[in-house]
C-alpha cells in the first residue's frame, strides 16, 4: 500500500459518514435495517473472541453485515476458511509497536531455512499506524453456521438484553429524576431527568433514552471529565453529542438492545460540518466514546479483576491474534520461554525479554489494547458554573 496515495482512515470514515448522513441512512439516523435486524452489529474476532476499538467497530459496522465475525484473510486461512471470490476487505487501523521482517542478506535476498523465510522482530521507538484488511464471516467459506456461533456467544448469559440494560443503568448509581417531558442530563446538578417510563413507546425506547443520557453523565468531572460546553445547536454541543451517539451505538450493540439517538435531526447538520472541516475529530470522538462504553459496561473493571485473579503467562495450544497473523504456542519451558508458530508456518523460540514475547503476552491478557485508536490524550478539567442541559 503506497502511503503517499493513501487517504488516512479518519478522513475516509468522515467522508463516508457525511455521505450517509446526507442520504439519511447513517447509523445515527437509522438503527434498524430493512430486514428488521439492527443496523449495527458489534464486530468480534471469532478466533480470539476480542472486539475492536470504537473507530474500527464503527467502520466495520457501517458495512451493515448481520454476521458479527471479522478477521483477516490470513487468519481465516489459518483457521481453514477462505475468502469467497470477488469479495473485498474492509480496512482498519491499529497501533503497532513492532514489526516482523524477513532476515535478508547484504544483497537484499531473503534468508530461508528448510524452505521457510527466517524473520526478526523490529521494535519501534514510537507506535506506528498499522493497517489490516478484514473480511466478514459472510464473505468467508466454510465458516461455522452463524446461529451456532451466536448461541455459543450467549451460552453463559443468564439475563435478557432488556434486563442487562436495566442492570447497567442501576449499577451506574446515577441520580435519575422522573417527570416532565424532556430527557436530559443536568451537569451542574449531576442528575439525569427523564419522562416517566410509561410515556415511552415501549421499555426498549425508555432504556435506550436512559443509556443515551448516561453517556453524557460520564462526562462529569468526577468521572471522565470531558469538556461539555456550548448551547443547544452549537458546534461545541454537537461534539459532545457525537461522542454520546457513538458510545450509544457501541453499548446498544453490546447489550443487543440497539440504539436510539433521539433528536438526531437537530444535530446532523453540525455533524456534517464538523466531519467536513475537522475530519480527524471522528478519531478523537471515537476514543472518548470507547472510554464512555468501557466505563458503563464495566470493561475496565472486569479486565482488572481478571488480571488480578490470573497469573499472566502462556500455555500450550494458546492461539493469539497479533499484527494481522495468529501465533500458536507449541511448547512452553520452565524458563517461561515459548515456542510459537505463526500462520505462515514459521517457528521460533521466544524468551521473556524479547519484544515479540511481551507483545503476545499483552495481546493475550489485554486483547482490547491491541485495537485501540491512536490519539493523544486531550481532556482538561472544565468548571461548570451554571446549570446546563446536555443531550436534549
Describe the overall structure.
With 392 residues, this protein is an alpha+beta fold. Among the domains are: 3-97 and 129-152, no CATH class; 162-303, no CATH class. Helix content is 34%, strand content 19%. It has a 4-stranded mixed beta sheet with strand order 8-10-9-15. Strands 11-12-13-14 form a 4-stranded antiparallel beta sheet. It has a 3-stranded antiparallel beta sheet with strand order 1-6-3.
In a nutshell, what does this entry contain?
The chain is α+β, with helices and mostly antiparallel strands and 392 residues long. It has helices at residues 9-23, 54-61, 73-78, 146-153, 161-172, 203-217, 235-255, 268-277, 281-297, 299-309, 355-365; strands at 70-72, 82-83, 90-102, 112-113, 116-117, 119-136, 140-141, 176-178, 184-186, 191-194, 319-322, 325-332, 338-341, 347-350, 389-390. Residues 367-387 have low confidence and may be disordered.
